[in-house]
Structure formats: C-alpha cells, structure tokens
Amino acid sequence: MTVVLKSFQLRTEPYCDIVDITQQVQNAVKESGIKNGIVNVSVAGSTGAISSTEYEPGLVKHDIEDLLESIIPYKKNYHHHKTWGDHNGAGHVRSFLIKTSQTFPFQNGSVILGTWQQIIFLELDEKRRSRTIYVQIIGE
Prior knowledge:
It is built from four helices and eight strands. It is of the alpha+beta class. It has one domain: Jelly Rolls. A five-stranded antiparallel beta sheet has the order 1-8-3-5-6, covered by helices on one side.
C-alpha cells in the first residue's frame, strides 16, 4: 500500500464562499500514480469545511448559504466571541457541523463521483483567508 500527501492553495472570500475543488483533487490523485484506493480531502483549520454537492449557482450561492444562515446565523452573539474577542463563532459551529474532511474512493486513477457531484470547500470565517487543502491518497 502506498500513501501520498499533496496540497494546494485557495484564496477565499468571507461568509460562506463555496469553491469547487474537484479538479484539484482529481489532479492530485492522477499525479500520485496510485490507481485504486481512497482519497481524503482535508482543510487544516476550524472555520472551513469540505463536502460534496451539485455545484450549480442556485444551490451553492443561495440554498446552502440560506440553510446555514437559518440554523447557524452569523449575527448571533456566540460565547466564542466573548472568549476570544473575535466574531467568527458561527464559522466554528458551521465547520463543526459540516466537518473539515471527507474521503472518496477512486478507481483507475479517477475519483468516483456521481454524475452531478463535485467536491467543494466552504469558507465559513468572517474574513478572507488563504487556505491549504490537503489531499492524502492511499491505495495501490
């Protein structure tokens, strides 16, 4: 079994920027030379998240943001704000809910996704960020 770790950078906008990272993940898998296995996609941080969905404007620009805002609003006064003196409590709670990594299978050097499924990164912080996305490829 072989394990390869790759990474790539993203520049994000605050408050629920959603970025399609499918191609970067696919490229990392191909470059690894591993044909079959699993790929774990992860962000090192507690105000970002990794998920998958159909990456289309209505869903990613409105529906996901509306859902998250309805259950975890940015304007709420979170206890986290009192502890650290910042205002990104919603980002931490959203990241806790969505999670900071996901694992996908791949076969013949290609990530296995549904017809309309893409891998996405969600920026949940209150400010622009430079993010490193880690792609760990495991297989043979």
